[in-house]
Each structure stands twice: as C-alpha cells, then as structure tokens.
Design a protein that fits this description.
Belongs to the mitochondrion-specific ribosomal protein mL39 family. It is found in: Mitochondrion. It contains nine helices and twelve strands. By secondary structure, it is an alpha+beta fold. The chain has two domains: 65 residues, Ubiquitin-like (UB roll), CATH 3.10.20.30; 196 residues, Threonyl-tRNA Synthetase, Chain A, domain 2, CATH 3.30.980.10.
Length: 342
C-alpha cells in the first residue's frame, strides 16, 4: 500500500510539474490557487447535503453548562462564538475541540466539547504559537505579492520558531536577478505597510484539509511546495495536508492559524537576512515583530523589542519545543547588529 501511494504521488507530481513550463504571473498564480481552493471547499461542503444537528458543549469561564445546537459540517467554532457575547467574538483566537487544537473557521463534524482560546488565558501557549505562525504566514503573503511579475518568489517552509526567539520568520528564495539586492529600511517599511493593509481588512484565515493530490495541483507551479506537500502528507496521521486561504492567497501550514488578520494589530517587518545557497537558490530569512490586539506595548518597549527582532533568528531542531510566551519588556537582545542597509 505504501509503495502504491508513493507511486501515485510521484505520478501526480510529474503531471503537475509539467505545468511549470508555462510560467504564470503572480496574479495568475493567486487566481489559479484561489479557484482550486474554492472548488475543493465547495466539494467538501457538498458532502453534507442535509442539515444534521450536533450538540456542542461549551467549556471555559462562565460557560459551564452552555449547550449549543449547531449544524454538522457547516457550523464552526466561530459560529459558536457568535451565539455567545461580543467579547467572545472579539477575543477568540483558536479553539479546542475535544481537546484538539482547532482553527476557528474549520467546520465541526460531530457533537463535541468546545473551548475558545484567547491570548489572556491562564495558559496561552497554543494561542501564542498559532499567532506567531500566523504572523509568519502573513509575511509570506506580503513577500509573494511585493515584487514585479518578472521576478519569481518561492516561499519555503515556514520555520517553527518559539515567540521567545524575539521574531517570527519566513524563509524565501527570490529570483536570481535579485541575488545582489539588499533591502533598505524603506523597503522594510513598504513591506510593513503592505502587511498593515491586510491587517486593516481583517481577513479570515480559512482552513481546508485536502488530499495530497489536491495540494499538488494547487501548487503545481511551485517547485518547493510540491516537496513540502509530500513531506507533510508523510507526517500526517490522516494522510491529508492543511491549507489556509487569506484573501486570494493560499498557503500550507503545519499547525493551526489564528482566526483573522485583524488580531495582528502591532506588526512590523524588521529584517531580511541572506543565508546560504540551497537547491532552490539563495535562501533569505525575512523576520518581523508583532503583538496582538489585546496585548499592545508602549512605544519605548516596542523599540526594545524591535531591536531584538532585527537580529538573525537561528533555527535549530529543538527550537520548536521551547516554551512559547509573547515578547515582554524583560526580553533582552542577544547579539548581532541590524541587517545591512543600502
């Protein structure tokens, strides 16, 4: 069975790789991926032709005993939050469904217990991890759309770094024509403005679990994403991979993202470091700093945190297991100088 699955994956990859011979513009790629995402989303929703009811037992402070009757395959934790209070709507970041991390916009498929997670919980670890991952995904979206169509932008796998590292990171390979490019402070400010525009739109991160063949088709024009799909599928207990859509941008993610871009209120792109030559070209590490809507920092504290976020974040295999906590005024920079400027 494993051999058969591997052969099918290889065949699909060869077929989809043939599509890369005709290079598409960034806008065409976004449109294609967005359309395929919508098609698969519609197919999955059609699996629930009849409205069936499920019971959702709410957990958390003040919610004990609250029972909601929702629609199977249609209602989400976000739908449940709408039946509670405005506070739950504004502050819910992620959910626990029968103890499992669950994106707020992912449909519920059976009766369950549900806990809404916020940044101010007694243990905000899962919310913080999802937030850092989401900030990195937002940075990838900005980079994917920031360059002219004649330049290719290949987003690599987002390193899973703890918030104690001081910065979220997004690895990328730019067109070879840009190998000598060093981002100026104005370029970083431009990336920040692009991110803030997406934040202002308060776009949802829509999750979708798909078969590897669907993901390979969606990322048919991305050399690296095809490899990443296969790696994620091999590691997945369900054999599926997780996609997220923000606006018309579709991305892969190893873990859940937060509900919406509007949660990332304080957000700044702080550095882009050149790393080493890899099989895909010159690897670069884009970094940034953010604090959520509920945990804003005074500008003097922000400057200290930003200084720390400029230094290169080293990614090690053990970094993902470190305890995650949002940056604080007590966090101290550790070493290197800010990135080279033009």
């Amino acid at each position: 069975m494993a051999c058969k699955t591997a052969c099918q994956m290889l065949q699909r990859r060869l077929v989809s790789s043939a599509a890369t011979s005709a290079r598409l513009s960034s806008a065409e790629l976004r449109s294609r991926r967005d359309s395929l995402f919508s098609q698969e989303q519609a197919r999955q929703r059609a699996l629930y032709p009849r409205v069936e009811k499920i019971e959702v037992q709410m957990q958390g402070p003040g919610l004990q005993g609250t029972l909601l009757v929702m629609n199977k395959g249609m209602s989400t934790p976000h739908s449940c939050a709408r039946h509670l209070t405005e506070w739950h709507m504004d502050n819910a970041v992620l959910a626990l469904v029968d103890g499992e991390s669950w994106p707020l916009h992912k449909p519920l498929t059976q009766s369950c217990s549900l806990t809404l997670l916020t940044f101010k919980d007694a243990n905000p670890l899962l919310a913080n991890q999802a937030y850092w991952r989401s900030c990195a995904a937002l940075l990838g979206q900005v980079l994917q759309n920031a360059f002219k169509d004649e330049y290719t932008v290949e987003l690599l796998k987002i390193p899973d770094v703890p918030v104690t590292s001081g910065a979220f990171v997004c690895d990328v390979v730019l067109d070879q024509q840009l190998d000598s490019w060093t981002p100026s402070e104005e370029a970083l400010r431009s990336f920040t403005r692009d991110a803030q525009q997406l934040i202002h739109k308060d776009l949802p991160w829509e999750p979708l679990e798909v078969a590897p063949s669907v993901a390979l088709d969606i990322f048919a024009h991305s050399r690296f994403k095809q490899t990443e799909v296969e790696e994620l599928a091999a590691q997945s207990s369900s054999g599926t991979v997780s996609l997220y859509r923000c606006g018309d941008h579709v991305t892969l993610s190893e873990g859940p993202l937060v509900a919406r871009t509007g949660l990332c209120m304080q957000y700044e792109v702080t550095a882009i470091h050149s790393l080493e030559q890899g099989p895909w070209g010159l690897h670069r590490r884009a970094q940034g700093l953010s604090l959520p809507q509920q945990l804003q920092a005074h500008h003097t504290v922000w400057r200290k945190l930003r200084k720390r976020a400029e230094k290169l974040v080293e990614v090690t295999p053990s970094s993902a297991s470190e305890t995650a906590a949002l940056p604080s005024e007590d966090s101290h920079p550790q070493n290197p100088a800010p990135p080279t400027q033009q």
